[in-house]
Amino acid sequence: MSDQNNKISGITNLTLSEKDKKANLDDVEILRNDKGEIICYHCGDICPNENIHIGNKYFCCNGCKTVYEILDNTGMCAYYDIDENPGFSLKGRKQEQYSWLDDEDVIERLIDFTDGHITKVTFHLPQMHCAACVWLLENLYKFNEGISVSRVNFTKKEIFINFYNETVTLRNVVELLDSIGYAPSINMSNLDDKSKKIADKSLYYKLGFIGFAFGNVMMFTFPQYLGMVKESDEGFFTFFSYLNMVISIPVVFYGGSDYLRSAWLVIKKRNLNIDVPISLGILSIFLWSVYETISGTGHGYFDSLAGLIFFLLVGKWFQQKTYHSIEFERDYKSYFPIAVTKKTTNSDTSEVSEKTVVVDKLEPGDTIIIKNNELIPADGILLKGNANIDYSFVTGESIPVPKQPGQKIFAGGKQIGSTMEMTVTKRVSQSYLTQLWNDSAFEKQEEKPMSELADKIGTSFTYIVLTIAFITLFYWLYNDPSKAIFAFAAVLVVACPCAVALSIPFTFGNALRILGRNDFYLKNTGVFESIQKLDRVVFDKTGTLTYALKNEVYFEGEDLTENDKVLIKSLTYHSQHPLSRQIYENIKARIIDFDDFEEIIGKGISGKIGEHTIKVGSESFVKNNSKINSTGVFVSIDEKILGKFIIKNKYRKGLKDFIDYFASNFKLALISGDSDSEKENLEQLFPSDTVMLFNQKPKDKLEYITAQQGKGEKIMFFGDGLNDAGALQKSNVGIVITENINNFTPASDVIVSADKFSDR
Questions:
Q1: 25-56, pLDDT tens digit by residue?
Q2: Are 96 and 183 spatial neighbours (Cβ–Cβ below 8 Å)?
Q3: With 80 as the cut, is the pLDDT of residue 89 above it?
Q4: Overall average pLDDT of the 242-256 stretch
Q5: Do residue 698 and residue 725 come from a single domain?
Q6: What is the mean pLDDT of residues 409-423?
Q7: How far is CA 154 from the centre of its chain?
Q8: For residue 515, is it within any domain?
Q9: What is the C-alpha R_g of the chain?
């Protein structure tokens, strides 16, 4: 596994031009096995004849030759340099017919997302088996320019593909995968439930066979278990010993094939991985047992050998299940407790109300309300409102897509503008939102420390185990040769470095689950290592250090009429900014619909109702004068300044202890978009050497973090997730403290429920 991870992590470092030149040299030697037989250049199988070849490259069938020609014509022959014979035989396989993928209903049920321009789809590829597969599949765009992105999840054998509808169809994509030997697992039964993947059954078959063999070997060893004397029952001993030896041959070379193959390949490359000591242990026990059986000096250890391989396979099965349940198969609830506002009607009074529900409670037919900057958690049909959907989380393109009532909307988009209503048509995908959070657009440009730690420990431990094993072997060869081989094998097997290498991701994965239960949601396990390397912690103020809804709010200026209150409350209803929400909660008035709505990050909100224009925000925004910016949230109706809302910040419970904890370990900074009116209070909470910057726009926060990173500092940033996406993304660790679980910020690394703030 360690060797495989090393291969995969190094894939992106390949230089295609150099590799292609190497693969296309005219003097390539004919590939032969140890017996001198010609083997296939693509898959490594023995060629039945010498009729199918291109120069000195021979193939076992026309299918393998075709795949090679496709790779060669697209400059992709580096595929053959990542691993030895990375392909698999296509002998006797007919290409599938995919005309049924032109059916619109089938397409609708297979795809994850489409906006008419870009389509996203996920396929399960059971043929994926090595680093070369990953490299090839992540370079699909070289085969067809209509494919923009292809990303692989090697553990789950899944591929995520984005393609342009104008140049490629879903059928074209599937036929391309099939032509290079990676036909997706698609059948009509899993169209309606795409979470049910067709699993590779080979491990289950192997586990069943080895378990059967293990039981029989144990049974055939009963002469030894019953204490029968070999001299008087030699016939029993000899017969059952040879029977066990015969059964053990497939046990070793079929049951242990994955370990033996992995060890052989890595040794050929003059390297070591964690399968080497396991393979040495298996072979040494087997060969010693064969020697004792044939020479008549003993009965061997075939029962122990069968048991060892059986439990290794059980461990492998458990490993796969653990990976899926701990890290790679977590649904969106493991990451963040996202919820949505649902519109309900009382059946008795016909009264319409709103309530917040978690997204996994949504059913087709439910009506939900999506406000400005809120994520759309499920597919649906737009019922009401002007929808401008930002699908940058999904497609990478930030231009909002306008939607009209009656049109379909896909999950993953973010509403930009006024509040809209939609009816849910499809249950929430349990992996789709998770995929958005881990999209490459939000990945930190850093190394993967967890994988490196696992590989480093696994490799180092392998060398240590081998050293101890050989010392043990030489010791017993000198003192008691009869025990030497078994002692050697015992060290190799008992001290299996799998446990060390696997304990790291399992431990981190378990930590993710425990933290998640306490409303502390980490994006991935790499965040653990990033936190260990921090130098400075940077805080936003509003909504982060202060409560979003518990502050004291009062208005200074003209007395607001009932109509003024209706207009202000209706406008602030559409915004999720902490200040807008506090104003909304403190005004007692009804809500009316807006004709237009706009929110300018870091400045304010504006909208129109009939002939009225309303603005709420900073003084510079409301008065259209960038040179002034006093404290308060100003309000204007039809260009007339009515006054301002004064919001007295209420700091979160436990804030002093929270800041003291970080101050004792890191340098601190506070960057706020507000004025410095609270500076005196903040100086009592923060150490004297804290950097404090006020009247800072989102761009200023991003520039500060960039500048500090340029000085070699590792930054953790605490924000509210609304205006801080750039700073959260740029920081080494971005943490969102949120009171509103409807907001999803994929640029963050951690999402913390505000209720748990004082618990640290």
A1: 445 567 777 777 888 877 777 887 887 778 77
A2: yes
A3: no
A4: 91
A5: yes
A6: 82
A7: 11
A8: no
A9: 32
**What range does the domain containing 362 cover?**
334-437
On whether residue 639 sits in a domain, the answer given is yes
Confidence band for 19, pLDDT divided at 50, 70 and 90: very low
The tally of CA atoms less than 13 A away on the side-chain side of residue 181 is 26
User: Beta 750-753 vs 520-522: how paired, if at all?
Assistant: antiparallel
Q: What is the rounded distance in angstroms from the CA atom of residue 425 to the CA atom of residue 431?
A: 17
Residue 535 burial by Cβ neighbours in a 10 Å radius (0-12, 13-18, 19+)? middle
In this structure, of 101-115, 133-147, 265-279, the range with the lowest mean pLDDT score is 265-279
In a domain, 349, yes or no: yes
Q: Which residues pair with 606 in a beta bridge?
A: 598, 615
Q: Are residues 485 and 397 in the same domain?
A: no
pLDDT of 544 strictly over 50: yes
Residue 73's contacts (CB-CB under 8 Å, 6 or more residues apart) are: none
Residues 6 or more apart in contact with residue 219 via CB below 8 angstroms: none
pLDDT band at 3; cut points 50, 70, 90: very low
Name, in order, each residue with C-beta under 8 angstroms of 715's C-beta and a sequence gap of 6 or more.
Answer: 534, 535, 536, 537, 538, 705, 708, 709, 730, 731, 732, 733
In one-letter notation, the amino acid at residue 296 is G
**349 vs 537, more confident:** 537
**Domain tally, the chain:** 6
Tell me, yes or no, whether 537 and 659 share the same domain.
yes
Q: Which amino acid is at 521?
A: Y
| Residue 703: Cβ within 10 Å count | 15
Indicate the average pLDDT of the chain: 76
Give CA–CA dist 674/671, Å, rounded.
Answer: 9
The more confidently predicted of residues 325 and 569 is 569
Q: One-letter amino acid identity for 583?
A: I
Residue partners of 422: CB distance under 8 A and separation at least 6: 367, 368, 370, 376, 380, 381, 382, 383, 387, 409
Q: Give the contacts of 32 (CB within 8 A, at least 6 positions apart).
A: 38, 39
431 and 455 together in one domain: no
Give the pLDDT confidence score for residue 195 in this predicted structure: 45
Do 353 and 365 have their domain in common? yes
SS3 of residue 609 by DSSP: strand
CA atoms lying within 13 Å on the CB side of residue 683: 8
Predicted pLDDT of residue 323: 52
Residue bearing the bigger pLDDT, 14 or 206: 206
Cα angle for residues 537, 538, 540 (degrees, 5° grid): 145
- Do 267 and 280 contact (CB within 8 A), yes or no? no
By C-alpha distance, which of 716, 195, 749 is closest to 515? 749
- Identify the H or E element spanning 538: strand 536-539
- Amino acid identity of 326? I
Q: What is the pTM of this model?
A: 0.50
- The domain boundary, picked from 190, 217, 233, lies at 190
Which H/E stretch holds residue 530? Answer: helix 526-531
Report the alpha-carbon distance of residue 502 to residue 510 in Å, rounded.
12
- Whether residue 735 is predicted with pLDDT greater than 50 in this model: the reply is yes
Q: Are strands 420-424 and 367-370 parallel, antiparallel or unpaired?
A: antiparallel
Do 626 and 730 belong to one domain? no
Give the residue from 615, 648, 681 where a domain finishes. Answer: 648
Residues 484, 387 within the same domain = no
Identify whether residues 175 and 299 lie together within a single domain.
Answer: no
Cα 694–Cα 696–Cα 701 angle in degrees, nearest 5: 115
Q: What would the pLDDT profile of 426-437 be if each residue is shown by its tens digit? A: 776 544 555 554
**Angle at alpha carbon of residue 686, lines to 680 and 688, rounded to 5°:** 85
